[in-house]
Design a protein that fits this description.
The chain is mostly helical. The chain has 4 helices and 2 strands. The chain is 55% helix and 3% strand. A hairpin with a 4-residue loop joins strand 1 and strand 2.
Length: 174
């Protein structure tokens, strides 16, 4: 009944299954906890604590890595903006100088025409509402807030289209 090979790492759920087996054994023994059952209980409580502690450590490390990646992504966005500003400034300078191309010791800079579709902009005094239907895109999406509110108020029509779900749970590690 004791652990056959304590060096084998067991999954969290396998450890849980051992607790269910222990519970069944204690019920069979009519609540009597033998020395062997007590030893087995202590061993699996220690394994559970070690496994949960390892989970929390790994979760904490992943969250730290994600926070660092987010910080670097924000920094990257900032550098992209700065690079674009410098490129725009250099382009304006070259255009003001009437130069399409400039060579330095390390770089060759060219002001080039863009490809693709021709850019378009609405005339300043035209609002979207003034455009004919063939020139307007219409997007439809469900108003989940209105549906939720209507269901909570007992609206049977809303209940035909959607239903409320139970609140989820989350894990807090301190």
């Amino acid at each position: 009944m004791s652990i056959k090979n304590p060096s084998i790492k067991e999954s969290l759920f396998l450890i849980g299954e051992h607790f269910y087996a222990l519970e069944s054994l204690i019920i069979e023994q009519e609540g009597e906890i033998t020395e062997e059952i007590d030893q087995w209980l202590e061993e699996y409580q220690a394994k559970q604590e070690e496994k949960v502690d390892a989970y929390c450590y790994i979760i904490q490390k992943f969250e730290e890595i994600a926070a660092e990646a987010k910080r670097l992504a924000e920094r990257s966005t900032s550098y992209h903006k700065k690079a674009k500003q410098l490129k725009d400034r250099l382009k304006v300078y070259l255009e003001n100088q009437g130069q399409q191309r400039l060579e330095t010791d390390r770089f060759t800079i060219s002001v080039c025409k863009n490809g693709g579709q021709l850019p378009i902009r609405l005339t300043e005094d035209i609002a979207v509402e003034q455009l004919p239907e063939e020139f307007v895109k219409v997007y439809r999406e469900p108003d989940l807030i209105a549906l939720r509110d209507s269901i909570l108020e007992g609206d049977e029509q809303a209940m035909r289209f959607a239903h409320l779900l139970p609140r989820g749970t989350h894990l807090r590690i301190k």
